[in-house]
Structure formats: C-alpha cells, structure tokens
Design a protein that fits this description.
mainly alpha, single chain, 2 helices, elongated
Length: 111
C-alpha cells in the first residue's frame, strides 16, 4: 500500500508565499547590484584617471614656491571673538561626548 501524502496545513500557505517573495526580491536585488557593478567597471579607465598636474615631466613646486601675495592669508588680521574658540589649541584629552567624565580621567558610568 502506498503512503498517503501529507496535506500541508492551511497555516503554512502564507509562509510559503512570503518565502517565495523574499527569495525573489533577494534575487532581483543581487542581479541589479551585479549589473550596476559591471557597468561601473566597464566605464572606468584601465589605469585610473589622468592627473595632468602630477605628470612626471612637469616640474613640481619646491619649498621656495608660494602662492601669489593676493591669495595668502593675512597673519596680522584680527580674529573675531566668535572664531577665537575654534582657533584655540586643544589642550585636554579628546572626547566624543561633551561633558563626559573622560576629561577628568574617570571611566564613564556603566563601563
């Protein structure tokens, strides 16, 4: 006597549809990414982009070559009060969170 096939329960039907949808979406996304990568690689030059200002035969500026006087910053110009804090040297320990306990040398709470 042949075994009877199990009928899948009705509750499994929605899951099966979702799985098919998810796998199909992943497949479409993978194909789209592969196509984008292939197009990007096809358009790129083999040796990279040209940099004519860095050519081997072109002379490079030395230590005595400076920007024209009109483009140099004025070291004697007054610094506005609103920008002084930004120009102040960093003398404390670096921290990611303002007001944290790391400044005083203590570990933050919870570590």
């Amino acid at each position: 006597m042949a075994k009877k096939q199990k009928n899948t329960a009705p509750q499994d039907q929605p899951r099966r549809g979702f799985r098919r949808f998810a796998l199909g979406s992943l497949a479409i996304g993978a194909v789209a990414l592969a196509g984008r990568y292939a197009r990007r690689r096809r358009g790129a030059p083999a040796g990279g982009h040209k940099a004519p200002d860095l050519a081997a035969g072109k002379p490079h500026p030395g230590p005595d070559h400076r920007a024209p006087e009109a483009f140099r910053p004025d070291p004697t110009a007054p610094v506005p009060e609103s920008e002084r804090d930004a120009l102040r040297p960093a003398t404390g320990k670096p921290t990611l969170v303002a007001g944290s306990d790391v400044k005083e040398g203590r570990a933050p709470a919870g570590t």
